[in-house]
Task: inverse folding
């Protein structure tokens, strides 16, 4: 879908993450930017800009140093206290998103960054569902399966019609 690069915002003298669309629809980038930018939470990545240049769609977001949760757990079991601290942060961020009618729909260890300070940040809202907004270009239709199979609700994995809500999304 997208490739992420470390980049430099020269106007504001800061490092940023630059995600460029490598395949798929630019509508997913707009969806991702709308969903993440609607949430101002310490545990959700901050979007700075979204656009297109020379036919390439991009999102500029905060650069998060550290590693993904997937990388963290691949090194071995996490201490219980650290695991619980991460879980609470993720649950708080998801509760805030769900409270605004936003469902991530692709939550997995690879989409959670853990900074050196231990702060967890949820990334990649490209498959998010915005419950309170109508979209000209629906990303999902009955019978369509998008996301990572092992992390989907059973109904979502089967491509069943109907609305997903916070009960269906972990």
Result:
């Amino acid at each position: 879908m997208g490739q992420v690069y470390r980049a430099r915002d020269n106007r504001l003298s800061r490092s940023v993450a630059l995600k460029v669309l490598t395949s798929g629809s630019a509508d997913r980038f707009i969806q991702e930017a709308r969903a993440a930018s609607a949430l101002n939470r310490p545990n959700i990545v901050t979007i700075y800009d979204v656009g297109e240049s020379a036919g390439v769609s991009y999102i500029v977001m905060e650069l998060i140093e550290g590693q993904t949760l997937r990388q963290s757990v691949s090194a071995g079991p996490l201490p219980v206290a650290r695991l619980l601290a991460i879980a609470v942060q993720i649950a708080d961020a998801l509760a805030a998103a769900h409270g605004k009618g936003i469902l991530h729909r692709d939550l997995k260890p690879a989409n959670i960054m853990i900074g050196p300070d231990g702060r967890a940040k949820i990334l990649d809202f490209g498959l998010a569902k915005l419950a309170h907004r109508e979209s000209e270009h629906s990303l999902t239709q009955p019978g369509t399966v998008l996301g990572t199979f092992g992390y989907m609700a059973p109904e979502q994995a089967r491509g069943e019609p109907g609305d997903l809500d916070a009960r269906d999304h972990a």
